[in-house]
Amino acid sequence: MDRIPILQMGDLLLVTIQVDMHDQLALTLQDDLTDKIQRTSARGVLIDISALDIVDSFIGRMISTISALARIMDATTVVVGMQPAVAITLVELGLDLRGVRTALNVERGMKLLQLPAGDP
After folding, report:
1. Does residue 80 contact residue 104 with C-beta atoms inside 8 Å?
2. What is the tens place of the pLDDT at every residue in 42-94?
3. What is the DSSP string of 62-89?
4. Distance between CA atoms of residues 19 and 53, nearest Å
5. Where is the STAS domain (predicted)?
6. Domain coordinates in residue numbering, the chain
7. Under 8 Å between Cβ of 48 and 75
8. What is the pTM of this model?
9. Which of 7, 3, 13, 9 has the alpha carbon at shortest distance from 73?
């Protein structure tokens, strides 16, 4: 698979990562997402990583970069479905994912994206 599908739901984009991420796929996703945010004027991006068992430091940094790029383009990013082992790995690697909003599942993530800007 060379690309991860990006679904549009109104003014939100939904990305469900169902395959193990490798570096090139992460870079392609970053490019595809920024392009889609620009073309659709999306105000929110939900990234579901519940199928990922492993996230290395590069993928962790890419998630942070995607969130920062979206923020610059006036879109909020929420990462959902993080497995406990993935969270532990990110902490052990020293990645704080500053600015990345998280939620337990897709439903909670969608609720976060529906909040007006600035609300917790």
Report:
1. yes
2. 999 999 999 988 888 888 888 899 999 999 999 999 999 999 999 898 888 88
3. HHHHHHHHHHHTT-EEEEE---HHHHHH
4. 10
5. 2-113
6. 6-114
7. no
8. 0.90
9. 13
